[in-house]
Amino acid sequence: MLDCAIIGGGPAGLTAGLYTTRGGLANVVMYEKGMPGGQITQSSEIENYPGVTGEITGMELMMPWPEQCQRFGLKHEMVEVTRVSKSESGHFLIHKLDGTTEEALSVIVGTGSTPKKAGFVGEETFFGRGVSTCATCDGFFYKGKEVAVVGGGDTALEEALYLAKICAKVYLIHRREQFRAAPNTIERVKNSGNIELVLNAVPEEVYGDKMGVTGIRVKFQDGSTRNIDVPGVFTFVGYNVNNEVLKQDDGSFLCEVNAWGEVVVDISMRTNVHGLFAVGDMRIAAPKQVVCAAGDGATAALQAIAYVDEILNG
Fold first, then answer.
1. Could you tell me the CATH number of the domain that includes residue 97?
2. What is the pTM (predicted TM-score) of this model?
3. Is residue 150 located within the same domain as residue 290?
């Protein structure tokens, strides 16, 4: 019987592993089918993690984390978890891809979310070399330059406003005339002096050279096209929440999720199922920043320790 099962090996899962083991839980396993580290390992440069002052990649940032966690007893099983359910005894049951199961007193799920692709030519080729899905992470690299933002929802407009404070100009590309964002956000965008609305247009291709992106071509509803010279393109067309492990045989979820599939948690990362916690990008209102995910992991771990202690010691 595990004291705690951690599903996912990103910053949230690793921090949860560090805090649960260092905090006294004796039998903790982190299930991550690949190498730990999460999406941040794909970032070419990290500038906004506290204490990191030199040039460092996402891979270099995350490299020491697993070793630190394992020093306190965290075990890493390189296996895929297909589902988390409740056993007849009332404990959690961890279903693995190889057909085996493991029981656990508590579970911390941190399987993250995946940005949706906009689908234009060059998006994959230039991802991380001018194409980004995180203005907070990468916006500073384009300080004083012009960039393009693709999307029409709250996130796209909010990120466009964020970039407008850093960049010389922001081209906001949206396939319709109307936006899906909150009215006050739309008004702020329209009143911004350095945001140009490129409406009724879809991105057709991002192009560039060996150094990265040099521009984006958009196509309008009337069939005409326009080339916009920018070194950076930010896409915000939504996220796919990686919540599959919480789906049960009947299609329902083990705990409460919202309309977008994000796990509903309280300020302590607790779901509506006792002993089950959700952390990082898969939870509601996630800032989608490494430092915040790590904080989630620590918060959930402290709650899991208290929960397990209550079960074992009454």
1. 3.50.50.60
2. 0.83
3. no
